[in-house]
User: What shape does this take?
Amino acid sequence: MATENSHRLAYAGPRHPEHGFPMWFEDEVGTRLDLALGGDPLAPAGEQPPAPGAPVHFPDNFPEEAFYLFAEAELPVGGTGAVGRARLVLALEAAFGGTGEPREGARIVFARIRVRMDDVTPGATYVVTHPYGVTESLTADERGRVAFTDDRGVADERLDEVLHAGLVAPFLRWADAPPSGYLGDGVTARRISGSPFGTNVFRVDGPRVREAGGPPDPADPTNPDRVQTDLFTVQGRLAGRLGVEVTRATYARDAAGAVTLDVHARSAPGQRLELGAPRVAFAAGDRDYVARAAVDTVPTTVVVVNAGDTPATRAQATVTDLVTVERAEYSPGAGTLTVAARSSDAGPDGGPQLSVPGHGPLTGDPTVFDGVSAVPATLLVTSAAGGSGVAPVSLTGPPGPVLPLLADAGADLTTTPGRRVDLDGTSSRGDIAAWSWTQEPGAEPVHLNGATTPTPHLDAPAAGTLEFRLTLTGPGGESASDTVSVTVVPAPVPDELTVTRCEYRTSRRQWRIGGTLAGPLPARVVVTCAGAEIGSGPVDATGAWDVRRTLTAGDAALVPTVSSAVAATSANGGSASAPVNLRN
Assistant: This one.
């Protein structure tokens, strides 16, 4: 049974001020890894930028993929007489959506679990155990290849989506003496630690996989169907610079013109954050930081410095006013939207103009917009000074009128004698206290099962047309009705189906079955042996059909004996059978 990792990464760091990817990701045990962008001999995985000798620069000299974590293990595998290879990749990767080329708006970060195998038994199934869980059964294709990839967190510019979805957590590391500042050297295969399941191995279970001489499971050393290694290469560089990200920068101005700057920022715990100018220290929480400063004029931008980084990290953000929505009410009956809001800029000129997108400027306190057909659940108010505010919309006025009952007996039906017919009144609407289905006069009466439910049924009689009425009754005695007709037509003449060829080639483990069908097209023929389906095939314009199947290791129930026979059927009632001709 497959096992999926329930552990997740804990935090994404601030976006890097130059390339825009998170500066680091943190796992549940507090390990933070930064993004290795090339040129580090202890972090070799990932592509080089287009100009490897030049400084990395986004987007013109930036790699198409880079890694926070990259772990890999390999095993020799067998089963066909050849020496195959099984490869496991576990990664936290930064890349780009769309064409994959570095560009603004296309950044993605995802967690990858990938298994590749070559030269294993075609059609056989394999199960892989790795540090982050156990896969479902993986089936080799006709060339003996297995290709499995599970990428989680892929979403353009939603770079923290991997925190909720990614399975590669916590981070793996060498079990003994990794290089200072790293989880491994990215090249040397060593024993590892970090699996939340304690399965710090790459294990493959499947038919005769040890045939190529791969290492056994020490707990099951004679098992020919299992190979296992505890040696991994691991790349991961501990984050040195922890950065800073401005989450909000607003100003307030009073009627006398005095200006205060309020800034919110985010970083790792314990950082020394400062405003660039004027130089004011931030008050620190766990990962949230705030600062207030008096300034002479309203600045266009603000710079926040993480003075604890070497070199110091700087992040810049646009300064806007702060918009507070104090009232947002909508009356469906009157079609009016009432809004009151204020800006933090109450300067001598009266402050910036506030507006509701799609409705217009706020001209009073409050402003009432007429002729509004409907509104979303939240209302947005924007400011000419760049700020915006949102608030939930409350509904006012009397409740809407109650609509009458609506009976809907469903679409008219066509069937053949003896078949079950299901009537469906579930599209009816309103406060329904009782359901009643009755047959209209004009045809031989039939028994209706469940006549007081929304979905009764009947057995179709001989050819003819039946009509049924659905009557709904409300709690106050009100009623509504609708009718549906059921037309019963003669059953179609069954297809004339023949089997002209029925072979099983034992050397190839291959079925070859074919024949003819005389009847309406399109049609499809299904072939079974001892109740198990071999396969199906379409009927061509000449009336010929053909079914072929090569059996795999899991198809033991479909291997015929000298007394076996196949049964062929079509949807239009055709059937035929034939003994199996066993060939070498």
